[in-house]
Write a structure and sequence with these properties.
The complex is a heterodimer of chains A (about 120) and B (about 210). Chain A is of the alpha+beta class and about 120 residues long. Chain A has one helix at about 1-50, and strands spanning about 60, 70-80, 90-100, 105-115. Chain A has a single domain (about 1-115), classed as 2-Layer Sandwich (Pantoate--beta-alanine Ligase, Chain: A,domain 2), CATH 3.30.1300. Classes of the chains: A alpha+beta (about 120), B alpha+beta (about 210). The interface of A and B includes residues 23, 42, 48 and 121 of A.
Chain lengths: ~120, ~210
Amino acid sequence: MLWEMMLALMIFCVVAVSLTTALRQAIDTVILLRDDAQTRHDFENLLNEAAVIRLQPGKEDLVVGDGRIHYEREVVRLQPKTIHGELVPNLYDVTIRATWQAGGQTRTNQVRSVIYQPASG
Amino acid sequence: MRTVPAIHPSRRSAPQAGYLLLEVLLALAILTIITALVFRIIQTTVRTTREVTYLESLQERVDGISELLRQNFTNLPAAAQFQTKTIQSGTELVFQHVAFQFATTPGIPAYGTVALCARPQADGRLYLAFYQEPEDARERLIQANQENDIRWTPILGDLDQVAWRFFDPQTRDWRADWPANGSRPALVELTFRISGQSQVHRSIFNCPTAPVLP
């Protein structure tokens, strides 16, 4: 009798823990997808913004929304040369990185684009 | 003559097969606890699933509206004119000589005036709406004091706050309005918060200032 009862309780505990774990993982997945969509949306906004503001080489922290996702913009001045050896000016390599915490882990995502910004523009 | 089967004396004193009252009560108690726990798990699962589904549908709506507005701003024709007007519920964006990007009947090209703004709902909250009519139909309604006849089409409701900003490429700064001087902002920023949500949605739309070549 005692063994039967213990076996039944053990099976129930295993099922309950499995269900809870599955539910937790489903929620984590949804949060991850949501964060991913949010960062892509913010990347698009920040790249649009980077195309018109005056870019300065270096790293800069960006405050977006409630600050849950930390964004950083790194600008590197590119100095490519043509086949004739002429310098192509006003080209910037812009990298935007997103860092945030989800499910007890640090997650990162980044986007990179080359922006032409004429000095007179 | 019928014979009665004899009963063995030892069978009379044998214990009857069954459960004790204590066993039954214990089993019932365990069953109750298990049922309560299972019910709790199911309840949590259903509630969480409902919330996740709601958030997903909300995000889809926000993404859809954002993409629709992005396409409208990106595809503004070179001849389009843009300005803002200050109204009671905020800022109204007015586009003139633009294609009807919001048209619900595809295949019918039409040009005219498109206006975008936040309008008050009956419950005091706001809804994002657009208006589109051929050329100066709207101006005629305003001049005839029939502004209430303007048919606004809601695209996103139950908003707590809606704000627009415009990036001036000359001063390289954001401003709250845009004059009717024939120029265009380089960027248009829309921020809004859906009622009951803490997150403020922010979208920045690129607004080409030069004619887009085919």
